[in-house]
Write a structure and sequence with these properties.
476 residues, alpha/beta, Rossmann fold, 2 domains, 4-stranded mixed sheet, 14 helices, 43% helix, globular
Length: 476
């Protein structure tokens, strides 16, 4: 992640307020029905849909400041966006979020949920964003041909975010075209705030292939019924007008619809980017492989090591159908830059939860941000062990009899854990848990384990005292 920022929200569902400072590995823990998925979905929506919020927002006062900055620098070969310029673009982006918050929430959840306010704060970057202005000269006879190409492809802009750089290929006539200037300002803004998490092109048709992957809870149900869900939900309900949608009960959040749509169109690569991690998960959790056939509406299958047949997912264990989407997306042709998973530990034995956590950390260390909601205290303890192991190794101390690779360990700087607690008034309190060199203390888990231990000790004490009582019939 080349940029970090804090999402500040107020009066959102059950949540009075929350400040979420994004990080490469982010975990939401806490009570059931406390809003973890709400906040995670809102984050997904801002990153996924943020590039579509810019249309017709040049009337906002803060846009003019961004436009003036661009036009004052457009004759230079290269410009570095400093903190002062970042502040200009941040103000405009926050104005857009404020203006579009109701529409954004309704698009995400397919339902109007109250959101008092939302904005990005505390913006910073690993390295500054550079902009190159590459001027080209065109003959008058080429103008019509170029305009036609613009409509199809948008040839004036090329973005290379791997190097924190935007290359604009421009002709002299563009400086006087308001639409082109507006698009350039929009691209810069997208690049600043969502660029390393999503492709920073607000108008590119291939946006769907780059948007973050959101893997919802209850993945088994979706994997077993997606064929039945896809036709009415995508081809009918989501092609309806707003009035028609109000009259139907067949609704799902947009993240789920996108998940189902991606299952429909997924292609599997022979040499995926995360091949080693895929192999690690298949060998140590699935004990086999998952894949798809070539049907127009694909069938997904599981091939255990022990047999030759490809088994349909509906005859496999819930472990397979829960983990399969994670592995399938890692093998797919989708070029996503962020993976969000709800309850990745679902249906996994404690030992397999530890293995999965190692796989997630390997993804983070390979450069893929992972954000999850979880109820797994095993995850937290494993994270704490791997943080401590990382710190010991950096001190030159090796722990005997532990066979972890360097890719399995993680620095506390890469992790942020937020606890969501239901409080007496029916609202939710959200807080960042402190991270130390030994890991993170999670009260929501520790308190439950402590109460369970107290009950066990009370039962044992009562049994001991009863057996030691001289009045007992056995001692008479």
């Amino acid at each position: 992640m080349r940029q970090r920022w804090t999402l500040s929200i107020n009066d959102f569902g059950k949540i009075d307020n929350a400040r979420i400072d994004i990080s490469p590995f982010m975990l939401f823990v806490g009570d059931n029905n406390s809003g973890k998925s709400y906040v995670m979905s809102l984050l997904w929506g801002i990153v996924s849909l943020g590039g579509t919020l810019f249309f017709d927002k040049e009337s906002l006062r803060t846009y003019k400041d961004c436009q003036d900055w661009l036009l004052s620098n457009i004759d230079k070969d290269e410009v570095i966006i400093d903190e002062e310029a970042e502040t200009l673009f941040l103000k405009w982006f926050n104005d857009i979020l404020a203006a579009e918050k109701e529409n954004l929430v309704k698009r995400i959840f397919n339902y109007p949920i109250k959101l008092g306010s939302v904005q990005i704060e505390n913006y910073r970057r690993v390295e500054p964003l550079r902009i190159n202005f590459n001027w080209i000269s065109i003959k008058s006879s080429e103008v019509d041909e170029l305009d036609e190409a613009e409509d199809d492809e948008g040839v004036f802009t090329n973005v290379d975010m791997d190097n924190s750089q935007i290359d604009f290929h421009l002709s002299k006539r563009l400086t006087s075209v308001q639409d082109d200037v507006y698009e350039m300002v929009s691209i810069i803004t997208c690049a600043l705030f969502i660029g390393s998490l999503n492709i920073p092109f607000p108008t590119r048709r291939s946006l769907n292939r780059f948007e973050p992957v959101y893997l919802p809870a209850s993945r088994t149900g979706f994997m077993l019924t997606y064929k039945m869900l896809i036709d009415p939900l995508i081809n009918e309900s989501y092609s309806m007008s707003d009035d028609q949608k109000e009259a139907t009960d067949r609704r799902l959040p947009l993240s789920v619809v996108k998940f189902l749509n991606k299952l429909l169109k997924m292609d599997i690569k022979e040499k995926p980017k995360y091949e080693e991690i895929v192999n690690f998960l298949e060998e140590n959790i699935l004990l086999g492989k998952v894949g798809k056939d070539s049907s127009p509406v694909p069938n997904y299958f599981y091939k255990p090591k022990s047999i030759e047949d490809n088994l349909p997912l509906y005859v496999t264990s819930s472990l397979v159908s829960e983990i399969a989407p994670i592995i399938l997306f890692l093998q797919s042709g989708y070029q996503f830059r962020l993976m969000i998973i709800e309850e990745p530990e679902a249906h996994l034995h404690l030992e397999l939860q530890r293995v999965l956590l190692r796989g997630l950390i390997r993804l983070v260390n390979s450069g893929l941000p992972i954000w999850i909601t979880t109820h797994s205290d095993t995850f937290i303890q494993q994270i704490n062990n791997l943080i401590s192991l990382k710190n010991l190794r950096e001190e030159g101390i090796e722990v005997k009899n532990l066979s972890y690779d360097e890719a399995d360990t993680i620095s506390p700087e890469k992790i942020k854990i937020y606890q969501f607690n239901n409080i007496d008034n029916g609202r939710t309190k959200v807080g960042l848990l402190e991270s130390t060199e030994e890991g993170v203390i999670v009260p929501t888990f520790n308190n439950a384990i402590y109460e369970l231990s107290k009950e066990a000790l009370a039962i044992q004490k009562t049994r001991f005292e009863n057996e030691a009582d001289p009045e007992d019939d056995g001692d008479r």
